[in-house]
Write a structure and sequence with these properties.
229 residues; alpha/beta; Ribulose 1,5 Bisphosphate Carboxylase/Oxygenase; Rossmann fold; 2 domains; four-stranded antiparallel sheet; three-stranded parallel sheet
């Protein structure tokens, strides 16, 4: 059964011509009529089917405007680095005992960071961490000796960008409560990252085929691609 709130939302937004991000943010916010602070989300369709290879993107973006989420960060490291990890803001810090807790299914964190020497032990938990997207990865900066930077980045606001087999990417740029400037800065950071991914991969034609913006419980609008001021 369709709710009264949903019935009041605009219809057939897919038939509206694409607009720039700065014009669409106020429109999307206007549709945020729920009682909670809805997230503002982007959807990209990329040209991942290439003649010689298939494009698979997996990277992270540090959002200059933050993510609006409180991230519980866990760190697996040597005992000698416990104090550094805790002082950097890690919520959970552990070594072999912590790895055993994870093995048994005790996962009460949203981000896992690991030092390179401990990754050998942690890599055996692929079946536990992999499906949840929690396995640390050097490409994503979560396998590192620089725990302070990794923890700080995770806490301040990061977004993971990865496409599925059909070339879809979904990523949040913040919350309805964010001012427009913060949301636009986050959008620009994501677009810049995708542009770099194009240059790092052999892509024939445009990497991004289409893009849209919506809120958690709103409707979708087509985005005019490009960086905004």
């Amino acid at each position: 059964m369709t709710s009264k709130r949903f019935k009041k939302l605009p219809k057939k937004t897919s038939e509206i011509s694409p607009e720039a991000i700065e014009k669409l943010i106020p429109v999307v916010k206007k549709n945020c009529t729920t009682k909670f602070d809805e997230s503002i989300d982007l959807s990209f369709q990329i040209n991942n089917k290439q003649k010689k290879s298939e494009i698979n993107i997996r990277t992270v973006v540090n959002l200059p405007g933050g993510s609006g989420k409180k991230i519980k960060v866990a760190v697996v490291c040597e005992d000698a680095k416990f104090a550094d990890a805790k002082s950097a803001g890690a919520d959970i810090v552990g070594s072999d005992d912590f790895i055993e807790k994870i093995r048994s299914g005790e996962i009460n964190f949203e981000k896992l960071i690991c030092t390179p020497s401990m990754m050998i032990k942690l890599s055996k938990l692929g079946k536990v961490l992999g499906p949840k997207g929690l396995m640390p990865n050097p490409k994503l900066g979560s396998v590192t000796e620089d725990l302070k930077t990794a923890i700080s980045d995770a806490k301040s606001g990061q977004a993971e960008i990865r496409n599925d087999k059909d070339g879809n990417i979904g990523v949040s740029i913040g919350k309805k409560s964010f001012n427009d400037e913060k949301l636009i800065k986050n959008y620009n950071a994501i677009v810049e990252t995708l542009e770099k991914e194009k240059s790092n991969n052999t892509v024939k034609g445009d990497l991004i085929k289409s893009a849209s913006i919506t809120s958690s419980m709103g409707v979708s609008y087509k985005l005019k691609l490009g960086k905004s001021i």
